[in-house]
Amino acid sequence: MLYKTTGVCCKEMNIEVADGVVKEINFSNGCPGNLKGIKALIEGMPKDQVIKTLKGITCGERPTSCPDQVALALESL
Fold first, then answer.
1. What is the CB neighbour count within 10 angstroms for residue 13?
2. What is the pLDDT of residues 16-70, one digit of tens each?
3. Is 76 exposed, middle or buried (0-12, 13-18, 19+ CB in 10 A)?
4. I want to staple 65 with a disulfide (CB 3.0 to 4.6 A). Which of 7, 42, 51, 59 is the partner?
5. How many CA within 13 A on the CB side of residue 61?
6. Structural domains of the chain in order of their starting residue, each with its CATH number
7. What are the φ and ψ backbone dihedral angles of 21, each rounded to 5 degrees?
8. How many Cβ atoms from other residues are within 10 Å of residue 72's Cβ?
């Protein structure tokens, strides 16, 4: 699934979920080190656990963040 983000540096993410588990996630733009870290941590995790863990995280003054956008994307599935 291709998800267009809002309010963050990453412009879009491509997420593959199968049997309720995040199989793969890739990002376009954004902070490479942070996004590689998110990728390494959530691939293989249950979708619902990722949502619970990442939803609501902010970035500085922004009301959202790349982790929050991942949670929102997964909720839309």
1. 24
2. 999 999 999 999 999 999 999 999 999 999 999 999 999 999 999 999 999 999 9
3. exposed
4. 59
5. 0
6. 2-75 (3.30.390)
7. -120, 135
8. 16
Q: Residue 35 is which amino acid?
A: L
Residue with tokens 């890739």: 26
Structure-block tokens of residue 45: 């995790």
Number of Cβ within 10 Å of residue 77's Cβ equals: 11
The residue type at 45: M
According to the 3-state scheme, what is the secondary structure of the chain? CEEECCCCCCCEEEEEEECCEEEEEEEECCCHHHHHHHHHHHCCCEHHHHHHHHCCCCECCECCCHHHHHHHHHHCC
Per the listing, tokens 């049997």 go with 19
